């Protein structure tokens, strides 16, 4: 919303951090449309944040791949493309799966407890919602992210975990932007995550890796099918609603 947040530019770091969070949220959820220009003047009005922290925030998000920057065209929201989704998927299958392998090796009882707790919160969400989760909301996203982050939380490599979070966020953008009907009942979604949880908690490294690899691929295949049938595929781009 216009002017939803106001920050004193004298506290540049705080204003920049706020701008990063607001821009990230609106890019991931599609409030800022894929392939649209990000004009400093309009963003200042939208968020009530000054030009300098806004530019710094855009630069930070550009380094993370959530904003595109061009010397001639300025900043813009990245388009959605099959090529990028394949890149994200393959990268997750390499990096996140390895993080899971390390987490299983190093995880303790408290790590297991958090996986179980986060799964039950996710399960409880699906047990009480009536429709299928075709349009994920903030509650679903929070619980889903918590579960997936819990799986790799015991990975001892901080940079690997950080990269996994970046990849997860990029994948979430595709899911949220397409608002697609996955074609699964709530019971199927629960069963999919339960199988993954049980493989991890059993300390079956090879089995858990296979399940996680397949879990990532399943969502990607559905989204790739949506992209293939979108009207924007002539230029390999899907512009969200």
Can you walk through the features of this model?
This protein is mostly helical and 241 residues long. The protein folds into 2 domains: 12-76, Arc Repressor Mutant, subunit A (Orthogonal Bundle); 82-235, GntR ligand-binding domain-like (Four Helix Bundle (Hemerythrin (Met), subunit A), Up-down Bundle), CATH 1.20.120.530. Helix content is 66%, strand content 2%. It is built from 9 helices and 2 strands; from the N terminus they run αααββαααααα. It has helices at residues 12-29, 40-47, 51-63, 82-106, 109-128, 138-152, 158-178, 186-201, 205-228; strands at residues 68-70, 74-76. β1 and β2 (74-76) form a beta hairpin. α4 (82-106) crosses α7 (158-178) and α5 packs antiparallel against α6 (138-152). The protein is globular and about 55 Å long.
Secondary structure layout plus pairing:
Elements: H1 12-29, H2 40-47, H3 51-63, E1 68-70, E2 74-76, H4 82-106, H5 109-128, H6 138-152, H7 158-178, H8 186-201, H9 205-228
Antiparallel strand pairs: 1-2
Task: Provide a brief overview of the structure.
By secondary structure, the protein is mainly α.
Structural class: mainly alpha
Question: Shape, please?
Answer: globular
Cα-based radius of gyration, to the nearest Å: 19 Å
Residue windows where pLDDT falls under 50 for at least 5 positions: 1-10, 233-241
- Characterize the biggest β-sheet: 2 strands, antiparallel
How many DSSP E strands? Answer: 2
Name of the top-level CATH class of the largest domain = Mainly Alpha
Strand line-up across the major sheet: 1-2
Number of helices: 9
- Alpha carbon gap, first and last residue: 17 Å
Provide the β-strand percentage band. under 5%
Tally of separate domains: 2
CATH superfamily name of the largest domain?
Answer: GntR ligand-binding domain-like
CATH architecture tag of the largest domain: Up-down Bundle
Helix content: 55-70%
Mean pLDDT: 86
Order of helices and strands: HHHEEHHHHHH
Determine the CATH topology of the largest domain: Four Helix Bundle (Hemerythrin (Met), subunit A)
């Amino acid at each position: 919303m216009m002017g939803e947040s106001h920050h004193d530019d004298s506290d540049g770091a705080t204003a920049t951090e706020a701008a990063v969070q607001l821009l990230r949220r609106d890019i991931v959820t599609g409030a800022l449309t894929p392939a649209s220009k990000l004009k400093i003047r309009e963003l200042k009005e939208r968020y009530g944040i000054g030009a300098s922290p806004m530019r710094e925030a855009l630069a930070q998000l550009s380094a993370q791949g959530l904003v595109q920057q061009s010397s001639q065209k300025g900043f813009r929201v990245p388009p959605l493309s099959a090529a990028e989704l394949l890149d994200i998927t393959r990268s997750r299958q390499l990096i996140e799966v390895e993080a899971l392998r390390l987490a299983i090796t190093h995880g303790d009882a408290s790590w297991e407890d958090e996986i179980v707790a986060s799964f039950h919160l996710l399960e409880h969400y699906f047990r009480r919602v009536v429709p299928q989760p075709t349009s994920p909301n903030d509650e679903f996203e929070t619980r889903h992210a918590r579960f997936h982050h819990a799986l790799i939380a015991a990975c001892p490599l901080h940079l690997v975990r950080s990269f996994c979070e970046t990849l997860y966020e990029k994948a979430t953008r595709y899911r949220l932007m397409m608002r697609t009907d996955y074609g699964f009942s709530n019971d199927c979604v629960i069963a999919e995550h339960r199988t993954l949880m049980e493989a991890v908690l059993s300390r079956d490294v090879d089995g858990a890796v296979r399940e996680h690899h397949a879990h990532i691929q399943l969502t990607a295949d559905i989204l790739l099918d949506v992209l293939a049938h979108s009207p924007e595929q002539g230029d390999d781009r899907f512009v969200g609603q």
